[in-house]
Structure formats: structure tokens, C-alpha cells
Design a protein that fits this description.
- The protein has five domains: about 10-90 and about 155-190, no CATH class; about 95-150 and about 200-240, Phosphorylase Kinase, domain 1 (2-Layer Sandwich); about 245-435, no CATH class; about 440-470; about 480-555.
- It has helices at about 10-20, 30-35, 40, 50-60, 65-70, 80-90, 100-110, 115, 155-175, 175-180, 185-200, 200-215, 250-255, 260-275, 310-325, 330-335, 345-360, 370-385, 390-410, 415-435, 440-470, 480-510, 525-555, and strands spanning about 120, 125-130, 130-140, 145-150, 220, 235-240, 245, 280, 290, 295-300, 305, 340, 385-390, 520, 520-525.
- The protein is elongated, with a radius of gyration of 34 Å.
- The protein is built from 23 helices and 15 strands.
- The longest helix is centred in the last third of the chain and has 31 residues, at about 480-510.
- α14 (about 260-275) runs antiparallel to α19 (about 390-410).
- With about 550 residues, it is of the alpha+beta class.
- About 60% of the residues lie in helices and about 10% in strands.
- The strands form five sheets. Strands 1, 2, 3, 4 and 6 form a five-stranded antiparallel sheet that branches. A four-stranded mixed sheet has the order 5-10-9-7. A two-stranded antiparallel sheet has the order 8-11.
Length: about 550
């Protein structure tokens, strides 16, 4: 392990944190409890203060660890439910940046003075977080905007903390079995990728543009667009959204307005992002979805997005259809398609638990169904069964879990499962039509052209070789002759060993037989047998040692 210079304080801080939580139930969870309901019987033994203490300690350790906690809240394969819930609520506790620094960063990055760019710029931030803070402003043309400014020095601080975590993780993976089993090095790699992307506001600006384009057909959804002239890696200026968090909606508002059509459009939009676009808002927690005064939903904060490959999109399609049809066996099959299995993976147990879990959800009321939590529970069962599920499936679970909460806030009796089933089937047909468009055949057409050009000469060569009797087929398989020879050598060694043993036993028995033939005062025949057995044994030992040494050198 190579320590990062000048990082002793960070190592000490982290080790104190580990010691403090070492004896907690942080890593103790069992998928059996999820399926059998044993967790309810044991709920009295759970210390619900420990997760709060963990969240508080992460907050005190700084912005990097707050972000790490937020990432871990999406990993049910690593942490128990009560920890996931505490970490999901983890928020930064930071002071605001002095306005002089805000002005300096904006003007240095954009090359424009604040007074020239804006008619009005509020000095006090409307929100502060670990990476940056947001100010209200008005452009010269009267347009209201939000200006996000990255904290000075935050990138350097994050990188130093990441280096510390990398060194500690490397040591843990090398010496601790659980760290290898849960692939903590891969968790850290995912964390580094996510964090560095969030630090670059140009990426978020591009994400806003891409998502806005993908969802342009949804008239009740808004994605704030960036003002590129006043944006950079450290500055993001975008449309200002004047609205209310969906979690802050009162029951009176729901009585006054039927929000069901709005909810249905939101769910459809997220399904499209997941299974059709392969580009999704990965952090749709209720605080990032606002209801505007004209009853539209705004999707804000696109620092964290998820990208899904075509194969994953198809797998997610099959998974959600299977869940909506309560087909537990098909759910297990689809999950296994997206997984890596360890040597000790218990597939029969995995299938049994997944099937039981899916069927148990069939009897729940509409308002009690939580698709996201169901996927998170299935991911945990997979981890406990020795099956490594794709990271993207954890992200899907987190997205849908947040959607469950948003749907419950907007329209408590909304049938999420039915909407998923209806829309996913339509999207599957739409996806099939999309793949049949001419532009998707270009690469396949080029490959087919190359094959057709080469095919006549290859067929001619094969038929010519067949006619001459020169056609050969090379197959890498077991060398039967060598294998037989090796077995013969082993058999010869065993036979020689048995002969030596028989000579020794025979000599021992002959020692008691009276005889006049003696050598050095001992019965001659038994002594000769002993000598021959000793020489044969010496030859066998030398031969074995020489052959084993030659084999080792060849390796």
C-alpha cells in the first residue's frame, strides 16, 4: 500500500470512522428475511439509531463522504434496508460561498461581468450543496434563470479523498474476503466516475439538452435548458423553475386537482428513458421533481444520469413485463441473463426465493405495491445467493423506488404496475419498429457486403481442398495420446509401489522361516528382498522428483 503524501489526517479520520461502526449491524442482512418475513419478527432487535449515527458521521467527514453515502443508498447488496433509508435522506450541511468568490468564478469562467450578463443577481443563494450553490438571477431580456456555481477547491478535495479511499480499498480487497466478495474496488470505481461527472457542469448542461430533446413530446413535463453563453465547467446557468416539491404537496391540492394524467405522463416518460432511450435521469428523488403553478412537472438536477446499452434495455423490458405479470420464474431467468455467477452460486435457492417474492406481491393492494423496492429486494437475494447482478440493475431499482414515492405523493391510488405493463408493451412494439428502419441496417449491410465478396473464393478454396484430400479441421481439444501416456506413467508408479510393498511384507514374513543361507548373520533371502525394495523405492522417489521438477519448469 502506498500512502498519499500529506494525507495522514484523512487516513486517521477514515480509520476512526471504521472503528466506530465496526460492531454495528452495518453489513448484517439476510435475503431470507426479505422473503420469509422473519425480518418482522426481528425488527425489535434492530438498532434504528445506528443508521442515523452513520449518516451524521458521513456528513461530518465532508462532501466526498456525503456523496459516497448517497451512492451506497442505491446498493441493497451491500447494506440493510434501515441503512439504505437513512443514507437516501443524507444531505449536505455546508456554509454558503461568499458572494465575492461567486462573482470571481463567474467572471473568470465566462469572461463576462455579472452586471453585464444579468439585470438582477441575488447575492444570497437559494440552495447550497457539497459541490456548489444556486442563485436566482434575471437576464437582461427579463428571463428568470438559476445560476449554479461550483465551490472553489472542491475538485481538489474530492480527488484527495478519492485517493485515500482507493488506497484503503486496495488494502481491504487484498486482505479481507468480504471486500473481495462485494467488489469494493468496483464500487469505488463507480463512485469516482459518478463524482467526476458531477463536478463538470458542462456535462450537466449537455444532459439537460439531451433529456429535453428526448422528452419534447410530453406537454406536461419540463426540463430546464442551459444558457450556454453563461455556462462552463464551474458555472451552469439554466431556466429558473418556479414550483413546489412534490413531497410538499398537501392533500388539499390533490383534492383540488386530478393529478392522475400528470402522474401517468411522468411514469411513461421515465419508462421511455429506461427502455427506449437508454439515457435516464438517475436521481429522480422527490426533491428533484417540482410541480409548477400551471400544473406541469419539472425535472431538475441532471448531474447524475444513467446510460443503458441496447441489451440492457431489452433485459429491462422483459424484467418489467415479467414483474407486472407476476411471473417469478421469468423474472429469475432475466436477472440471471444480466448476472455473473460465482462458483458457489446457489441457483435453485435463488429461483425459489425470487418466485416466492414476486408471487407475494401479487396479493398487495395497488397503493402498497413498490416496484423499486421489489427490484432492490431481488438484487439483495441475488447477492446473498452468490450472484453478481449488473450495477445498472441497482440504478434501475433506485430510479423506480424514487418513482414509487413521487407517484404516492401525486396520486396515492395510481396503479403503477398496470401503467408499466401497458406502456412497456407499447414501447416494445415501438422499439421493434425503430430497429427495422433503414439507418439501422447500414452496418449490417456493410458486413453482409464483405461476406458476399469473400464467399465465392472461400467456397472455391474449401471445395478444392476437399477434392485433393487436403482439407483439415483444427480443433483445440484434449490430446488423447498424451493423456493416455500420462495415465500409463501414473499406473506404472502405482504398480511399482505395490511391488515394493509386497517385497517388504514378504521379506518380513520370511524372517521367521529357518534357513542355512545367511548374509552377515541375517536370513539371506529376506535381506535380498529388503535391499531390492530399498533400491526400487529410491529409484521411484528420484524419478517422481525429477518429473515433477520438469513439469514445474515447463509451467
Amino acid at each position: 500500500m502506498k500512502f498519499v503524501p500529506g494525507s495522514a489526517d484523512r487516513y486517521v479520520k477514515f480509520l476512526r470512522f471504521i472503528v466506530r461502526h465496526w460492531n454495528s449491524d452495518l453489513f448484517e442482512h439476510a435475503s431470507d428475511q426479505i422473503v420469509t418475513g422473519e425480518a418482522e419478527d426481528q425488527s425489535s432487535s434492530i438498532d434504528y439509531e445506528k443508521p442515523k449515527e452513520l449518516a451524521d458521521d458521513l456528513r461530518k467527514m465532508g462532501p466526498t463522504y456525503v456523496k459516497l453515502g448517497q451512492l451506497l443508498s442505491t446498493r441493497p447488496d451491500l447494506l440493510p434496508d434501515h441503512y439504505l433509508e437513512a443514507l437516501a435522506e443524507l444531505q449536505d450541511d455546508v456554509d454558503s460561498i461568499d458572494f465575492d468568490l461567486v462573482r470571481e468564478i463567474f467572471e473568470e469562467d465566462t469572461g463576462i461581468r455579472i452586471s453585464k450578463a444579468f439585470e438582477n443577481f441575488e447575492e444570497d443563494p437559494m440552495a447550497s450543496a457539497s459541490i456548489g450553490q444556486v442563485h436566482r438571477a434575471v437576464l437582461k431580456n427579463g428571463k428568470k434563470v438559476a445560476v449554479k456555481i461550483r465551490r472553489p477547491g472542491v475538485k481538489k478535495s474530492f480527488l484527495e479523498d478519492l485517493d485515500t479511499l482507493e488506497e484503503i480499498t486496495e488494502l481491504a480487497v487484498k486482505h479481507i474476503g468480504a471486500a473481495r466478495r462485494y467488489a469494493l474496488d468496483e464500487v469505488l470505481e463507480e463512485f469516482r466516475f459518478m463524482l467526476l461527472n458531477e463536478l463538470d457542469y458542462t456535462r450537466e448542461a449537455n444532459n439537460l439538452i439531451a433529456l429535453g430533446e428526448n422528452l419534447r413530446s410530453y406537454d406536461k413535463l419540463i426540463v430546464p435548458q442551459p444558457i450556454t453563453d453563461f455556462s462552463s465547467t464551474r458555472v451552469l446557468t439554466m431556466d429558473f423553475i418556479d414550483g413546489t416539491k412534490v413531497t410538499a404537496l398537501g392533500s388539499l391540492k390533490r383534492l383540488e386537482s386530478d393529478l392522475t394524467p400528470l402522474t401517468e405522463q411522468l411514469v411513461k416518460a421515465y419508462l421511455q428513458q429506461i427502455v427506449f432511450d437508454g439515457f435516464a435521469h438517475a436521481d429522480p428523488h422527490p426533491g428533484n421533481i417540482h410541480l409548477t403553478n400551471d400544473e406541469k412537472l419539472a425535472l431538475i438536477d441532471l448531474g447524475m444520469v444513467a446510460r443503458f446499452s441496447s441489451s440492457l434495455q431489452e433485459s429491462f423490458l422483459k424484467l418489467m413485463i415479467s414483474i407486472s405479470q407476476y411471473d417469478g420464474e421469468e423474472v429469475a431467468d432475466v436477472m440471471l441473463e444480466m448476472s455473473e455467477k460465482s462458483e458457489d452460486a446457489n441457483l435453485p435457492e435463488f429461483r425459489k426465493k425470487i418466485t416466492r417474492l414476486v408471487l407475494d406481491n401479487q396479493n398487495k393492494k395497488v397503493r402498497d405495491m413498490e416496484t423499486g423496492r421489489l427490484i432492490i429486494q431481488m438484487n439483495r437475494i441475488a447477492a446473498e445467493s452468490g450472484i453478481k447482478i449488473a450495477v445498472e440493475l441497482n440504478i434501475l431499482g433506485k430510479i423506480l423506488l424514487n418513482m414509487d414515492k413521487i407517484v404516492a405523493s401525486l396520486s396515492p391510488n395510481f396503479d403503477f404496475q398496470k401503467t408499466i405493463y401497458n406502456n412497456v408493451e407499447k414501447m416494445m412494439m415501438q422499439k421493434a419498429k425503430e430497429e427495422l428502419k433503414p439507418r439501422n441496417f447500414f452496418s449490417k449491410a456493410i458486413e453482409s457486403k464483405r461476406l458476399l465478396e469473400a464467399l465465392p473464393s472461400r467456397i472455391n478454396k474449401i471445395t478444392s481442398d476437399l477434392a485433393k484430400g487436403e482439407f483439415t479441421l483444427n480443433v483445440n481439444t484434449i490430446d488423447e495420446k498424451r493423456l493416455t501416456a500420462d495415465f500409463q506413467k501414473v499406473a506404472n508408479r502405482i504398480t511399482l509401489g505395490l511391488i515394493i510393498a509386497a517385497m517388504i511384507i514378504g521379506a518380513a514374513l520370511l524372517m521367521n522361516v529357518p534357513t542355512t543361507f545367511k548374509i552377515f548373520g541375517y536370513p539371506g533371502l529376506p535381506l535380498l528382498f529388503f535391499v531390492l525394495a530399498a533400491l526400487a523405492g529410491l529409484y521411484l522417489v528420484i524419478n517422481i522428483m525429477r518429473k515433477d521438477e520438469d513439469l514445474g519448469n515447463r509451467k
